[in-house]
Amino acid sequence: MNKPMPNSESIPKTVAIWKQKGLSTRASYVLAKADISETGFVTYNDATALIAIRNCGSETAQELWNFITNFKPEVREVKFEDLIPN
Predict the structure, then answer these.
(1) Of 6, 25, 33, 79, which sees the most CB atoms within 10 A?
(2) Residues 45/24, Cβ–Cβ less than 8 Å
(3) What mean pLDDT do residues 18-46 have?
(4) Higher pLDDT residue, 14 or 73?
(5) What is the 3-state secondary structure (H, E, C) of the chain?
(6) Per-residue pLDDT, 69
(7) Displacement of CA 57 from its chain's centroid (Å)
(8) How far apart (Å, rounded) are the C-alpha atoms in residues 54 and 86?
(9) Which domain holds residue 24?
(10) How many domains does the chain have?
């Protein structure tokens, strides 16, 4: 079953997020238009599965696979005190 396209207003925001993480404009748009989030993206366990994403060619799939295999989620240190509301 195909997922509906994301809201057209959310696509540029999603593209900006992916570009900020180091992906090309092309790869960022492929992910944004497929409505793939950061957590959904890392579930791809095979480079050939990326080709199944709409408008994802072999070079873009290779870029995405390289990104996945080198992906390290950003971890921020949070102090317990910062979690308590004033």
Answers:
(1) 33
(2) no
(3) 85
(4) 14
(5) CCCCCCCCCHHHHHHHHHHHCCCCHHHHHHHHHCCCCHHHHCCCCCHHHHCCCCCCCHHHHHHHHHHHHCCCCCCCCCCHHHHCCC
(6) 83
(7) 16
(8) 47
(9) 1-86
(10) 1
